[in-house]
Amino acid sequence: MRRHPFKPIIFQHSKSLLIGTLPPETATFYFSNTPKTRLWDILYALDKDENTVPRNKYLIPENEKIKILENLSLSLTDIILDFDRKDMNSVQDSDIIPYSYNNIKSLIADTEITQLLFLYKNAALWFLHSLKGEDPVPINQIRNEIHSPEFLTFNLNNREISCTVLPMPLNRGKKGETMIYKLGIYKERIR
């Protein structure tokens, strides 16, 4: 069994929490393993109020990434905490064997976060499963209960928390989901 390599980045003043699944073994920081993963390109564009999405911002130093998160009132974590992989070189969620989930409610309890933004549908599905209090299971054992991007609202400490699945921050995506389209959706949701 392995533990997630990075601590959650939680700012008390954040309005939103970005939630992924689990980084590949080669990652040095959240979403920093490949130019195909464009989260830092999108967040950089939002921070600089740009209308285009630059490339290769995954290479900027960790402290700059944390500053971007802080500037945008964002916190960041993954849903999987303890795990194994069927293949340690795999980047596929289907190869993740989860043993424990991050307790998202506990992570945000003392913050101003009112929005959970899931970067992948699988992260949202694992989150929904975590709310049931059952033992974690591989993603292929979870029934798809998400039928629209905005899929859940719940109350936590007298705060209404909304849950949304964002377009994947990857070069690839659904037909018509260009990087400019994705930038627009992220801009709408990250307030």
Outline the structure in words.
With 191 residues, the chain is an alpha/beta fold. The protein has a single domain (2-189), classed as Uracil-DNA Glycosylase, subunit E. It contains five helices and eight strands. The chain has helices spanning 39-47, 62-71, 104-108, 121-131, 179-189, and strands at residues 2-3, 16-20, 74-78, 80-85, 96-101, 115-118, 150-156, 159-165. The strands form two sheets. A five-stranded mixed sheet has the order 3-2-6-8-7. Strands 1-4-5 form a three-stranded antiparallel sheet, with helices on one face. A hairpin with a 2-residue loop joins strand 7 and strand 8 (159-165). Helix 1 packs across helix 2 and helix 1 (39-47) crosses helix 5 (179-189). The longest helix has 11 residues, at 121-131. The protein starts with a strand and ends with a helix.
